[in-house]
């Protein structure tokens, strides 16, 4: 990357600083299936990760010495991607996402860090969100043992509503393509945007089970299940059909149909053995006040999501059932300098 010395960034006590924010994401349909080239639909949420970089005399993170081996995502971005050789940096990270909870916190961290470094190196540049999504995807793939779709990083980078699929999905706007060599072979995805109707009168309420669940382990578990019992591929095919139906309903603003598709998607994810007692309990608790609900992300623990016109009631139901709620609109803005 060519660096242009920056002149337009805030300077505090003689030190240049930059702050970037990237949103988390919520998968409405297609988690796990997307790793195998089926479509997934995800929206950016209001909560996310903020990274602040201040040029300094010593490398620190959250006030402690920065050791690159302890922060492989961040050092990969600094060293391998941007060849950063500027002044040492004070790195601060602020997140209002639950971590290892299926909300894309590591993708948001990669995107916010990448955006902050991009801006620090060239204060005049427009953020290259596609490049950031690709950088994040490479980092996720490393962390998930070669099995990672670009869903989390693309949604956090671009914001709005994103469809990721092995093939172009009609009714969407193609933005870029991505590929990865996985242990099961080469995968290619097309990353597309979808315009959400602006009169959508519904909210997402996420419910955290309190149990962190590493995505890599869950994705590896599904790979093993499919290997041991290839008939489970029919659940993947079913999720794919539900995803197309859910997407069409979303585009038409038919929220009842979106909710029904979410409920059916949850049943299929249960058959892929990625739900848990805690996730099922939260899903059941919110159904009386929701249009639909399902686990979101990798499962095993982490979060469920409800689509609802009564976000406060759903948040209460989640709390009563032992979870922690987070309310969001659908389709927040993507990564940005703040
Ligand atoms: C994780 O947020 C979603 C999964 O489909 C994994 C991936 O897409 O890389 C489980």
Describe this structure in words.
With 338 residues, the protein is α+β, with helices and mostly antiparallel strands. The chain has a single domain, classed as Ribosomal Protein S5, domain 2. 36% of the residues lie in helices and 28% in strands. It has helices spanning 72-81, 105-121, 129-143, 151-158, 215-228, 233-251, 255-271, 277-286, 311-320; strands at 11-12, 15-29, 40-55, 60-61, 64-65, 89-95, 161-165, 173-182, 185-194, 203-208, 292-296, 303-308, 324-328, 336-337. Strands 1, 2, 3, 4, 5, 6, 7, 8, 9 and 14 form a ten-stranded mixed beta sheet that branches. A hairpin with a 2-residue loop joins strand 8 (173-182) and strand 9 (185-194). Helix 2 (105-121) packs across helix 3. The protein is globular. (R)-mevalonate binds at residues 27, 31-32, 34-35, 102, 104, 148-149, 151-152, 215, 219, 297-298.
Could you write a compact summary of the structure shown?
The protein has helices spanning about 70-80, 105-120, 130-145, 150-160, 215-230, 235-250, 255-270, 275-285, 310-320; strands spanning about 10, 15-30, 40-55, 60, 65, 90-95, 160-165, 175-180, 185-195, 205-210, 290-295, 305-310, 325-330, 335. The chain is an alpha+beta fold. The model is unreliable at about 1-5 (pLDDT under 50).
Summarize this structure as a short list of keywords or feature phrases.
10-stranded mixed sheet, alpha+beta, disordered N terminus, Ribosomal Protein S5, domain 2, about 350 residues, binds (R)-mevalonate, 9 helices, globular, single chain, 4-stranded antiparallel sheet
């Amino acid at each position: 990357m060519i660096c242009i010395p920056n002149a337009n960034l805030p300077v505090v006590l003689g030190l240049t600083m930059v702050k970037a924010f990237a949103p988390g994401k919520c998968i409405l349909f297609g988690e796990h299936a997307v790793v195998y080239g089926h479509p997934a639909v995800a929206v950016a949420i209001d909560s996310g990760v903020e990274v602040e970089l201040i040029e300094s005399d010593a490398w620190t993170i959250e006030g402690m010495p920065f050791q690159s081996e302890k922060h492989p995502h961040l050092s990969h971005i600094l060293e391998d991607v941007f060849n950063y050789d500027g002044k040492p940096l004070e790195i601060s990270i602020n997140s209002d996402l639950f971590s290892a909870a299926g909300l894309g916190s590591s993708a948001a961290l990669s995107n916010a860090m990448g955006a902050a470094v991009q801006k620090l190196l060239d204060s005049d540049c427009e953020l290259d969100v596609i490049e950031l999504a690709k950088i994040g995807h490479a980092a996720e793939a490393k962390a998930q043992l070669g099995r990672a779709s670009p869903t989390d990083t693309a949604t956090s980078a671009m914001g709005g509503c994103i469809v990721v699929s092995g093939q172009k999905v009609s009714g969407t706007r193609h933005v870029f393509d991505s590929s990865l060599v996985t242990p099961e072979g080469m995968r290619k995805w097309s990353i597309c945007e979808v315009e959400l109707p602006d009169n959508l009168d519904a909210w997402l309420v996420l419910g955290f089970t309190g149990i962190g669940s590493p995505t890599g382990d869950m994705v590896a578990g599904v790979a093993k299940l499919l290997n041991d019992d290839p008939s489970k591929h029919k659940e993947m095919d079913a999720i794919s059909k539900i995803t197309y139906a859910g997407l069409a309903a979303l585009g038409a603003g038919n929220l009842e149909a979106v909710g029904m598709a979410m409920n059916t998607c949850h049943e299929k994810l249960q058959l892929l053995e990625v739900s848990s007692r805690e996730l099922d309990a939260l899903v059941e608790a919110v159904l009386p006040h929701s249009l639909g609900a399902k686990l979101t992300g990798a499962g095993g623990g982490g979060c469920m999501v409800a689509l609802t016109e009564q976000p406060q009631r759903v948040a209460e139901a989640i709390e009563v059932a032992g979870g922690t709620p987070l309310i969001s609109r659908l389709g927040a803005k993507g990564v940005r300098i703040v």
